[in-house]
Design a protein that fits this description.
By secondary structure, the chain is mainly α. It contains 5 helices and no strands. Helix 4 runs antiparallel to helix 5. It is elongated.
Length: 176
């Protein structure tokens, strides 16, 4: 029970509290700071929100089949079917993958907004520090989340179809 609560608390705080809070600040403040009327792609922004909502529902649906007890880091041996039976881990993996796609989409929107929609005369060197932080954070999210999403998809293949991406007995590398 402790491992289940630890897993869900850690992932919920990162993916459902801290990251959306950052995105909401970015969404509200960046257009104001750079002199734009809105973000570059408002529909993409709405798509990111709905993906976030859908991913959050999937993440919390993992309580139905027994919450995952793999830790919020989900190291490879703990996520195997033998150590974590039930459907909770599958919902958790799918929810995190959807949340990762939502973060990638919103990061692309922020990068395009900052680079292409600045007010006339506002060069990159005249941008506020918060805008620079948003730009760098968005680039970091675009570099990090595809790797995490691919690892989650590989983990899903391991659990659903018996693939051997993380099974050391089958010659795989659990540090992958």
């Amino acid at each position: 029970t402790f491992n289940q609560l630890f897993t869900m608390h850690g992932t919920s705080m990162i993916f459902l509290a801290i990251m959306p809070l950052n995105a909401s600040f970015f969404n509200y403040l960046i257009p104001l700071m750079i002199g734009a009327r809105d973000v570059a792609y408002p529909r993409l922004n709405a798509f990111s929100y709905w993906l976030f909502l859908f991913g959050g529902l999937f993440l919390n649906a993992s309580f139905i089949g027994g919450a995952p007890n793999v830790g919020w880091f989900a190291y490879a041996p703990l996520t195997e079917q033998g150590f974590a039976p039930g459907t909770g881990v599958e919902f958790w993996i799918l929810g995190l993958a959807i949340l990762g796609v939502a973060s990638i989409v919103s990061s692309m929107n922020f990068i395009v907004t900052i680079l292409n929609m600045r007010a006339p005369g506002m060069t990159l060197m005249r941008m506020p520090l918060f805008t620079w932080m948003t730009l760098i954070t968005s680039f970091l999210l675009i570099l990090a989340f595809p790797v995490i999403t691919v690892a989650l998809i590989e983990l899903m293949f391991d659990r659903f179809f018996g693939a051997n991406f993380f099974v050391p007995a089958a010659g795989a590398n659990p540090l992958l």
